[in-house]
């Protein structure tokens, strides 16, 4: 096996060593066009060969089908993998959304179901996908801590939680990682959340580190995504209409800087995220081996302090047009 990405450690009081770059598996089953399970499995297995062993899924992806896909892909290779999944965005099998659920009894049931679908006896990292506003975080994390005691889960995480919620959760049981969106296009967590994570010794797992593909240069005003690709919808204002037109100007700046570094714009954008600290492990998602290999190439892109400052100046936070979701009601800030 080629280990091109090295390792990083998430968390201080409950440390988890993972590959320095992870793989988001969501798009292999839903949201980003027509799913192709065999292609997804091939991509996961190639990732393992390249040393990308930190795999991220969730029960709601598919729903439920993505965990089964990941389970198939890692059959016989479980010991190589740091496996993360999530609960809390409760859906029916037909895709209908029910609610955000952080009730203690649901936490236990959801974990058992995920273990069965994945075909494993434990999870390396178990996240609450979204914070339930109707259930105190202490109750939810208390139930998650019970899963650790039972040996079903090794480490706990939260996703899209505010600094105050993270602090309250960490007081109940050590939180190893917070998963949230972070990229050149999404930097609001730098104000309060990231300093809190570092104060408490909690790792950061950025999802959508390529801005859902726009930072790769693959999305253009002329390029049409598949009809069933959710990025075509108003749910992603940055990728449609005026938001897309304005944000493509910023992508052009990243592309020009990438040429100077002899890499692709996506590699440069991903290298920027990787350079934010050894406690940061991005999980770019892809369904294709060639895109996976390109992402792995970002680990070889060296950026100086001046390079990082140039990138931030080229993509000012306030210049990005549109919220990251059309409905931000479930995102704590």
TrEMBL record:
Organism from which the protein derives: Nocardioides dokdonensis FR1436
Q: Which GO terms describe its molecular function?
A: oxidoreductase activity
For this protein, what is the EC number?
1.1.1.-
What CDD domains would the database entry show?
Answer: AKR_AKR13A_13D
Give the record's keywords alphabetically.
Answer: Oxidoreductase
Q: Name one Pfam family in it.
A: Aldo_ket_red
Superkingdom assignment:
Bacteria
What phylogenetic lineage does the species belong to? Bacteria, Bacillati, Actinomycetota, Actinomycetes, Propionibacteriales
* Record's keyword annotation contains Oxidoreductase: yes
What's its top-level EC category?
Answer: oxidoreductase
Domain NADP-dependent oxidoreductase: residue ranges: 21-313
Q: Which InterPro entries match?
A: AKR, Aldo-Keto_reductase, NAD(P)_OxRdtase_dom_sf, NADP_OxRdtase_dom
Q: Which GO terms describe its cellular component?
A: cytoplasm
Can you name this protein? General stress protein 69
């Amino acid at each position: 096996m080629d280990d091109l990405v090295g390792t990083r450690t998430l968390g201080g009081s409950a440390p988890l060593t993972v590959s320095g770059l992870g793989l988001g598996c969501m798009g292999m089953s839903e949201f980003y066009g027509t799913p192709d399970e065999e292609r997804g499995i091939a991509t996961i297995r190639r990732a393992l060969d390249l040393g990308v062993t930190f795999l991220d899924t969730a029960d709601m992806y598919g729903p439920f089908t993505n965990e089964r896909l990941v389970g198939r892909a890692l059959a016989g290779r479980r010991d190589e993998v740091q496996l993360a999944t999530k609960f809390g965005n409760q859906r029916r099998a037909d895709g209908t959304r029910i609610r955000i659920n952080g009730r203690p009894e649901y936490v236990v049931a959801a974990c058992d179901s995920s273990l069965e679908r994945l075909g494993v006896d434990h999870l390396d990292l178990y996240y609450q996908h979204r914070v339930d506003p109707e259930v105190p975080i202490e109750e939810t994390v208390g139930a998650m801590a019970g899963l650790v005691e039972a040996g079903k889960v090794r480490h706990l995480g939260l996703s899209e939680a505010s600094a105050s919620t993270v602090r309250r959760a960490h007081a109940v049981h050590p939180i190893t990682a917070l998963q949230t969106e972070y990229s050149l296009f999404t930097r609001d967590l730098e104000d309060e959340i990231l300093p809190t994570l570092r104060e408490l010794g909690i790792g950061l797992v950025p999802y959508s580190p390529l801005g859902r593909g726009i930072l790769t240069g693959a999305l253009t005003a002329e390029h049409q995504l598949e009809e069933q690709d959710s990025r075509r919808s108003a749910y992603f204002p940055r990728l449609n209409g005026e938001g897309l037109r304005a944000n493509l100007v910023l992508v052009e700046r990243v592309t020009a800087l990438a040429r100077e570094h002899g890499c692709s714009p996506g590699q440069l954008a991903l290298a920027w995220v990787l350079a934010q600290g050894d406690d940061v492990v991005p999980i770019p998602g892809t369904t294709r081996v060639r895109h996976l290999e390109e992402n792995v190439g970002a680990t070889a892109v060296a950026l100086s302090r001046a390079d990082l400052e140039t990138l931030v100046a080229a993509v000012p936070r306030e210049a990005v047009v549109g919220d990251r979701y059309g409905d931000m009601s479930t995102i704590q800030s």
